[in-house]
């Protein structure tokens, strides 16, 4: 398998509420999609919102309500940007899980959960470069 990810799909309980969070709260712009799903183009990857029950049916895997151990990270160029993104997410309705702090691997990061409980890390890794187009170079 080629080493890449092209789409991350988040199962959501309420598609309208989830769209409000990502679009009105975080400022993301949706891409054209069939009814019942929303796509957002990011640099080099896309994120989809899809009903949680529909996703469970499609994947043939029940929703069990436990933290899956998967997080989604959005790296920033400075500590101030990390703080600003966390503040924006909380203002939009996210739950702050961990305020940003300097971490053992030499960076700075914090976590929030979106209204459906998906865990996002917002981080600065000084060893990585965030290019002008938003892509990451390790």
UniProtKB/TrEMBL annotation:
Pfam families hit by this protein: Glyoxalase
Residue span(s) of domain VOC: 4-125
Matching Gene3D superfamilies: 2,3-Dihydroxybiphenyl 1,2-Dioxygenase, domain 1
PROSITE patterns: VOC
PANTHER family membership: BLR2520 PROTEIN (PTHR36503:SF1)
Protein's name in the database: Glyoxalase
Organism from which the protein derives: Mycolicibacterium obuense
């Amino acid at each position: 398998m080629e080493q890449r990810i092209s789409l991350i799909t988040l199962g959501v309980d309420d598609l309208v509420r989830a769209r409000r969070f990502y679009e009105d709260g975080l400022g993301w712009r949706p891409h054209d999609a069939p009814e019942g799903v929303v796509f957002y183009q990011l640099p080099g990857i896309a994120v989809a919102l899809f009903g949680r029950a529909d996703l469970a049916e499609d994947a043939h895997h029940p929703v069990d309500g436990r933290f899956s151990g998967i997080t989604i990270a959005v790296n920033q160029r400075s500590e101030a940007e990390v703080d600003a993104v966390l503040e924006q997410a909380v203002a939009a309705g996210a739950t702050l899980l961990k305020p940003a702090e300097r971490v053992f691997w030499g960076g700075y990061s914090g976590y929030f959960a979106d209204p459906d409980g998906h865990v996002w890390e917002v981080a600065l890794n000084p060893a990585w470069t965030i290019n002008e187009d938003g892509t990451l170079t390790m």
